[in-house]
Amino acid sequence: METDEKVTHWTDKIIDEATTKFGGKHVIMGGWSPSGIFHIGNSREIITANAINRKLKDLGITSNFVFVIDDFDGLEKIPSTLKKYKGSLKEYIGHPLCRVPDPTKQFASYSELFASSLKAACKEWNIDVEFLNASDLYKEGKYDKFYSLYLQNYQKVQEILKDVSGSELSSFLIVICPNCGSNKSTEVLKMDDTKISIKCQTSGQYKGCNTTSEVSVESHEWKLKWRLDWPARQTFCGVTIEPAGKDHSVEGGSIDTSIAIHREILNHQPPVMPRYGFITINGKKMSGSSGLGLPVEKLSEIVDPSSYLYLVYKTNLTRDVDFDYKSMNLLNLIDEYIGIWRDELFGDKYEGTTQQVTKLKAAFLLTKTPYHEKNNPLYIKMTELLLLYQISLENWDRLLDKLKSLGKLEEDISLEELSLRLKRAMNWLNTYGPDNLKFKINEIPPEGVNKYWTKTYKDIWLETLNTLDKNSTKDDISTILRAKANEKQVQPKELFKPFYQLIISKDRGPNASQLIVSLGSETVLKLISKIEV
């Protein structure tokens, strides 16, 4: 049903709030700790921030997107992807990520090893972002005045933290031991304007050196704990918008404490901090340690990353995005993305209400690049494309001939885009695809297939196929087949197992009517005629 209600994207509400508070110049920020692989489950923050940044620029509003790599965090555990390096990494547990060596010897540090995949993904995803290392921000003295400010307001800060979150901090700082290099085994004993006294001792898995030391403030061998680091960082970077996960937005969480610190200690307007949901698979939160996190570098092997970005952009911000890349949902996503692409740029009409299509177009436009404008994609269901390619013996030229014979290949179609889409889809099929989509066509009836057939089954199929002409569609075939089955008092579902065993030697397979259209009814007719019953 059509509606006159104005269709808005979730970026519009965020931008309206931010421009009201901060005017026409913006800094968008995000952050991530490079403790392991950057997988799809980590990506919502940077994708969300990118959408806001792009929308601001599309509106002609000055905007800059910065993303902080939290490489000053301590190494908590060795990820499963680096288990073979456990022997060399074990001694660095508890050390800042930027000071842990890369065990693969490809990069200057452990943090750079994992940050590299994030940076490569951003380049591939056309995300315009400036990366900052937290270790550099501390080294450059960006946090120095906040150290002093928090120290001067020590009691007030603790009162705010207790009022908002329910508990005080045992210390404002995490300090690196000058003797062993760990920042997970140290305890602050005393701090003043110039120095910090610490004790280093083993704590759980974090090995200490049982020493007491003094660390000078100007050495920058310390970092603020997260609830104090965050508002400080937002302030000195001039952040106006920073998306945050819904885990940060619980009552008394880090968003609430950040806002309170901004207002009561820093005397600063807190940025707009929209909450976003998680990236899930089958409703489960993605996690690298649980094996549910698809590494970002693997994404483009199975799907155009623009389709994935589109999925995130079209989903309401506070909802989880279920990216079930191992199921048929991925093919459905590609179908929808191609349909909206053609609607927006090449004049096709995508089915749906004006409101629905407008919402989907808004998501597409946030992914659009010059590539999309230059390449007109063929609209064909992914299941049909995979079907036709396998029928064509996985031969590109035969596939094109088949598409032409079916009248599906328009002159202005981008074969470059189609080839890449197909390559990714075949990678997906071979890695995750269901068995009923994988097959090889039998040229003669396979041995033993007659046991699946009866004379009645054969008659129904032959009568159906002989009724068809070159213009018959898959829906026509289904309708005729059901009618013929009913005439002979046979349940239609009984007809498919013998059919698939004959054609592809399986109990199940792709849509039978579509298979007949793709193969050609004459090919199927010849095979069935050879059945002996």
Give your account of this protein's structure:
By secondary structure, this protein is mainly alpha-helical. The mean pLDDT is 94. The chain is elongated. The chain contains 22 helices and 13 strands. Strands 1-2-3 form a 3-stranded parallel β-sheet. The chain has a 3-stranded antiparallel β-sheet with strand order 5-6-7, with no helix packed on it. Strands 12-11-13 form a 3-stranded mixed β-sheet, with no helix packed on it.
Q: State the distance separating the first and last CA atoms.
A: 53 Å
- Uncertain stretches: none
Spatial ordering of strands, largest sheet: 1-2-3
Q: What radius of gyration results from the CA coordinates?
A: 30 Å
Shape summary: elongated
How helical, in percent, are the residues? 40-55%
Main sheet characteristics: 3 strands, parallel
* Strand segment count: 13
Contiguous helical run count: 22
Strand content: 5-15%
What is the residue-mean pLDDT, rounded to a whole number? 94
Given the helix and strand composition, which structural class is it?
mainly alpha
What does the secondary structure layout of this molecule look like, with pairings?
Elements: H1 10-22, E1 25-32, H2 44-58, E2 62-69, H3 86-89, H4 110-124, E3 130-133, H5 134-139, H6 144-152, H7 154-165, E4 173-175, E5 186-191, E6 195-200, E7 211-216, E8 222-224, H8 226-236, E9 244-245, H9 254-264, E10 275-276, E11 279-281, E12 284-285, H10 296-302, H11 305-314, E13 321-322, H12 329-346, H13 354-365, H14 370-374, H15 382-391, H16 396-405, H17 415-431, H18 455-467, H19 474-487, H20 496-504, H21 512-519, H22 521-529
Parallel strand pairs: 1-2, 2-3, 9-10, 11-13
Antiparallel strand pairs: 4-8, 5-6, 6-7, 11-12
